[in-house]
Amino acid sequence: MTHCSHTPGMIRLDQALERLLQACPDCLEVEFVPVTQALGRVLAEEVASPIAVPAYDNSAMDGYALRVADLAAGRRLPVAQWIPAGKNPEPLASGSVARVFTGAPIPPGADAVVMQERCVEADGMVELPEGIALGEHIRCAGEDVQVGDVVLQEGVRLRPQDLGMAASVGLAELPVRRRLKVALLTTGDELAQPGEALRPGQIYDSNGPMIAALLAQLGCECIGPRGLPDDAAATRAALAQAAEEADVIVTTGGVSVGEEDHIRPAVEALGSIDMWRVAIKPGKPFAFGRVGDTPLLGLPGNPSSSFVTFLILARPFLCRMQGRHAWAGPEFLLTAAFKHDRPDPKREEFLRARLTQGVVEIYPHQGSGVLSSAAWAHGLVRVAPGRKIQPRDVVPYIPLSHLLS
Ligand code: AMP
Ligand code: MG
What is the DSSP string of 294-309? Predict the structure, then answer.
């Protein structure tokens, strides 16, 4: 990987992403967890069904199971069986019907179910309607899943419906990847913790809680946030400790060019900076490196930059480390209701945006220090370098909900 900490240029975003994914270490160990605790975990192996679902032909309705051919002799037939869901039926005696309920097994010999609303039952006999089709209202064995069908793909992050699927084929446990441990360090002598009184020159640490929450939403185990002073020795010590404790380190701030930016020199002292400065706005000073063998993602300090670079650069890397195969959400092509006439000539921009009544609006203040833009946004508009946008132009819109899962 190119050592580019002294290169003045920037890396194109697509190249930065490619490099990040190439540098991703092997997947985490596998563990088995109960299906009821597997929400949000990453499936380590594909799951094939050991059974057919449904396992037997069953009724889709409350009604009567019959043999269609029996109707040739007359439409009034005796009710010979009562089959609620969960019962194991007898074969259907010819010339009779069985009372069946939704989900009840179809008795051997029956080939249709008539819904009860179309029948009249009195004195143990049922008057059946005309026009009953073979197979009507029967849910056939295996119509949902056949034995051996792959019902869940390896590398998916398990959603509620995936857990339902696993349970429907009888699995009590699933093989998942161990949770990714991420050490989160915020930097800056100016940072005060929420709840403390602000002294002159201080600001509250917003990145700490925000990035910790983003990590939690991705299903990572977050160690921290820990606040670091702008001090070379303290930064080195904290990074060395974080590298011992975690699979990956995420930092915010201290990654720019000033004398008080201690992350890059500390990472270079303990490992390497493999990438720095990405052509993205907000967020140019994003850095990637290693502390010993532990990867480090250095997010910029400005809160909006930190938010965007986490979602666009750090998230794909973390998802890959978690063993996820698919994480990229769709970009929707939508109509702009805003003007963007001073684009950055070199950097891809991610404007904090919202979809309102079918058109996309952007927050009026897109400054990298303005966190209100991110709090207001429901999505990001991706703007190619140098692209001017007029109202009614079509723009790529990425819903935040995709990036937060
Ligand atoms: P830096 O990258 O450390 O130079 O920080 C850039 C800007 O982001 C400065 O205005 C910092 O005060 C601000 N900043 C850095 N870290 C945080 C944080 N954790 N929360 C809020 N603002 C921050
Ligand atoms: Mg700083």
Answer: EEEEEE-SSHHHHHHH
Mean pLDDT of 374-381: 98
> What is the torsion angle, in degrees rounded to the nearest 10, for the CA atoms of residue 96, residue 100, residue 106 and residue 109?
0
Q: What number does the ligand 1 atom closest to the CA of 207 have?
A: 19
Positive or negative, the CA dihedral 49, 52, 54, 55 is negative
DSSP-derived secondary structure for 45-111: S-EE-SS-BSSS-EESSSEEEE-GGGGGG-SEEEEEEEE-TT--PPPPPTT-EEEE-TTPBPPTT--
3-class DSSP state for residue 267?
Answer: helix
Assess whether pLDDT exceeds 50 at residue 39: yes
Encoding tokens for residue 45?
């192996």
> Distance between CA atoms of 17 and 318, rounded to whole angstroms?
12
Q: How many angstroms separate the CA atoms of 253 and 255, rounded?
A: 5
Determine the angle formed by the axes of helices 232-245 and 263-270, rounding to 10 degrees.
60
Identify the band that residue 8 occupies on the pLDDT scale cut at 50, 70 and 90. Answer: low
pLDDT band at 292 (very low <50, low <70, confident <90, very high): very high
Pocket-testing residue among 202, 228, 250, 252, ligand 1, by greatest number of atoms within 8 A of Cβ: 252
Give the chain's mean pLDDT: 96
Whether residue 256 has its Cβ less than 6 Å from ligand 1:
yes
Summarize pLDDT for 230-287 with one digit per residue, the tens: 999 999 999 999 999 999 999 999 999 999 999 999 999 999 999 999 999 999 999 9
Q: Which ligand is nearest to the CA of 203?
A: 1
Which ligand is nearest to the Cα of residue 300, counting in written order? Answer: 1
pLDDT for res 330: 85
Three-class SS of 315-382: HHHHHHHHCCCCCCCCCEEEEECCCECCCCCCCEEEEEEEEECCEEEECCCCCCCCCHHHHHCCEEEE
Q: Which domains does the chain have, with CATH numbers?
A: 1-27+179-405 (3.40.980.10), 30-50+149-177 (3.90.105.10), 58-139 (2.170.190.11)
